[in-house]
Amino acid sequence: MTQSTTRRGPDDPETNPNSLHDFHQAKRGAKDIPPVVMALPSEHVSVPKDPGHPYARTKHINFDFYDQRTSNAPFGYEHFVSLPPNYDEDTSQRWPVILFLHGAGESQRGAGRSESFLSIRHGIPKVILCYDKLKSNEAPAINIDLPPRFKRCKQAKQADKFVEPVPAEVCALVAENFVTVTPSLDMECGYGWNSSVLSALLDEIVERYRVDLDRIHVTGFSMGGYGTWELALHTPHRFATLMPVCGGGDHLRVGHIKHILQWVHHGDLDDIIPVQASQKMVRALEHAGAPEIKFTRYPDLKHDSWTEAYNNPEVYRWMLGHKRTVKGDEEAVPAENKVVLSGEL
Fold first, then answer.
1. Where do the coiled-coil regions begin and end (predicted)?
2. Which residues of 44-79 are buried (b: 16+ CB within 10 A; e: fewer)?
3. What is the CA angle 48-52-58, rounded to 5?
4. Could you give the CA distance from residue 123 to residue 233 in angstroms, rounded to a whole number?
5. What ranges do the domains of the chain cover?
6. Segment 33-46, tens digit of pLDDT
7. Is the CATH number of domain 46-341 3.20.20.70?
């Protein structure tokens, strides 16, 4: 009698330790998508929920975890949102936004795991958590370890730098001047960032908070670097700046986003996503006549060039100093195309 076996695909980290870093080679479709269960009501309210782990708890800054309530697809992204400490002091003030897209290695791997802590180990959410540490008179560093099944991946073997502290200046610049949004991708809903779903999420953020529509900035690393460029191509009249880190994109369509100010980062020794992926985009943008493209290369860094990039205070001053030059895409997804996702209202 032949025993049945569970077949594992190339995306399973148990059989392919580097599966989480294959985004630059292929985009995979969604699977096991949760169903749409109701039509859009006249009013809906987003309520913070428990992320299922203690790593996002803060004392000195709002850093809450939400479900995406409306989407033009049958799934949405759970997401963390930080608000500046003085957000409520002046209700007439509108704030710039940083949308941060994490990499493949920071993705959740299925419902019920409570793995959203992966998405806050690096980049913008790490800065927010380190700001809270500073305000508690602690060192501006965090310690959120990877689950055992991720520790064999190529990125982890290259010395994950999440424990490195964040400069106090960077903590203050980000936490006190921006609304930050960190969606958490679950691989069960597909491999790679979905630009349509991200656009619906941004519509929701604009509705929920006092956002300056001319100062929405997008950044991300690795898979999130690809997502940064792809989202801009999806809604090219929405963003003030783009900061893709160790990513890549469709260089044949960059003419659509040449008006957006961009600062690209990549490690020369990156053997997961080669620096040529960023070089191709930068060259295409320059050839298309982009007025300002900054390209920072790190000669001694491998895949983790994001720790260096996000610890640089100049990138946030650069964001604060720019607004979008072409208006449009004020609401990327029309209301009639949205539905409320499954879950409690």
1. none
2. eebeeeebeeebbebeebebbbbbbbbbbbbbbbbb
3. 60
4. 22
5. 46-341
6. 444 433 344 455 68
7. no
